[in-house]
Amino acid sequence: MVNGEREIIIHPIVTEKTVGLQKGNKYVFRVASRATKQEVRKAVQDMFGVTVLKVHTINVRGKRKRLGRFEGRTNSWKKAIVFVKPGERIKAFDIS
After folding, report:
1. 40 domain-assigned
2. Which residues lie across from 28 on neighbouring strands?
3. Percent of the chain beyond pLDDT 90?
4. pLDDT by residue (tens digit) across 50-94?
5. What is the mean pLDDT of the chain?
6. For residue 5, what are the contacts with CB-CB under 8 A and spacing of at least 6?
7. Does 92 reside within a domain?
8. Among 13, 19, 27, 51, which has the highest number of CB atoms less than 10 A from its own CB?
9. For 95, what's the count of Cα atoms within 13 Å in the CB-facing half-sphere?
């Protein structure tokens, strides 16, 4: 169990694909690896004052990287797609 909204939501993910998802009231965040869907839902509702309908989480595996003859791996992390009630918006994502 993770404590506090700031520890659960690490940062929003803003790419061309995630900006396109916002038209369907979906927002994407990088979240703590141990955070549950219920914790993510509560953190988003408390931080941004929106109604969350559902949350999808994805465990993103780290990629293999090489630097010369040395091989390593980037860290694995967790991504959450948050579905917000139609008509509500998260102001932090508004570009215009």
Report:
1. yes
2. 81
3. 85
4. 999 999 999 999 999 999 999 999 999 999 999 999 999 998 777
5. 92
6. 42, 43, 46, 47
7. no
8. 27
9. 8
